[in-house]
């Protein structure tokens, strides 16, 4: 067993886990944060994407012990003080989700993408979400959500 100590959604957390415990399982089972979904368990679908020190990573490919001392943001951590983030609001406004299984991965991925590229062109938005799989939407509304989130973030300012 290994001690894992990190910041999750702004809160210091720790737990003792086996060396092979995946970050996705650590978040879901050890910390009770079930918003991170596990789909393919091979890093292909993107449903398990979380932000590690602000960068998107596949939690199903990351060992929990490897993130000790770092900061993880899950979909639960995107909202602040009960207010949805601009990305979350945009996905709701633009119907960028249907069944919701893939949504946490899209939300974290788009959050990181828009920090780097706050005014993306269509092809950039498409490329940004290409690594996340959705079986329901056909991606049109997801891309609209990316653009709407960029608008909302620009309106709010830094």
From TrEMBL:
PROSITE patterns named among the record's database cross-references: 2FE2S_FER_1, 2FE2S_FER_2
GO molecular function, one term: 2 iron, 2 sulfur cluster binding
NAD among keywords: no
InterPro entries: 2Fe-2S-bd, 2Fe-2S-bd_dom_sf, 2Fe-2S_ferredoxin-like_sf, 2Fe-2S_ferredoxin-type, 2Fe2S_fd_BS, Beta-grasp_dom_sf, Diverse_Oxidoreductases
Domain 2Fe-2S ferredoxin-type: 2-78
Gene3D superfamilies named in the record: 3.10.20.30, [2Fe-2S]-binding domain (1.10.150.120)
Superkingdom: Bacteria
Record keywords: 2Fe-2S, Iron, Iron-sulfur, Metal-binding, Oxidoreductase
Pathway listed: Alkaloid degradation; nicotine degradation
PANTHER family, per the entry: OXIDOREDUCTASE WITH IRON-SULFUR SUBUNIT
Protein name: (2Fe-2S)-binding protein
Species whose genome carries this gene: Herbidospora galbida
Classification lineage: Bacteria, Bacillati, Actinomycetota, Actinomycetes, Streptosporangiales
